[in-house]
Design goal:
The protein has 154 residues and is an alpha+beta fold. The protein is built from six helices and eight strands. The longest helix has 13 residues.
């Protein structure tokens, strides 16, 4: 059994001409061992694509059903999110096909960065990932975060 129970780490992958990318094997292992299903729901967040294991997506839907949003901005966000949602499955070669509309939405063309974010996977165009973290001061971020999460102190 794989001791890793959450998605974490980062790797660079090439997008093929058909729009397929390889999912890191450690992420595929988590999909199999923790979720028992290799289906992801992909949505766009504007700068990147997020892939939720189907189980995690269903949990979100249940939460939204039980507590329907009242704020118009949240309703608008969910309308947008659902309009971009696409279910994809990992194929026998360990790849997923990212639909053209999602690739276009984040300008994903060649290489991408795949990161693990606890219960989801993020797929970033390399240039957007680099721009996101170009001027980040990790020490400053750590100081801010450690106030809310003192268990992170080193």
């Amino acid at each position: 059994m794989n001791p890793q129970t959450s998605f974490k780490g980062k790797s660079i992958h090439a997008l093929n001409e058909a729009g397929r990318i390889s999912i890191p094997s450690k992420f595929r292992d988590i999909l199999k061992s923790k979720y028992g299903d290799e289906t992801l729901v992909l949505v766009t967040m504007g700068t990147h694509i997020v892939g939720y294991p189907i189980y995690e997506w269903v949990k979100l839907e249940k939460m939204w059903d039980e507590n329907p949003p009242k704020d118009m901005k949240v309703k608008k966000f969910l309308r947008f999110l659902y309009s971009t949602a696409e279910e994809v499955s990992v194929d026998k070669q360990g790849r997923i096909l990212i639909p053209h509309i999602l690739r276009e939405s984040v300008n994903l063309k060649n290489e991408c960065i795949i990161t693990g974010q606890r219960n989801r996977v993020e797929i970033w165009p390399v240039d957007k990932w680099e721009a996101e973290f170009k001027d980040v001061n990790i020490a400053e971020l750590y100081e801010s975060v450690s106030k809310d999460f003192p268990e992170l102190s080193i």
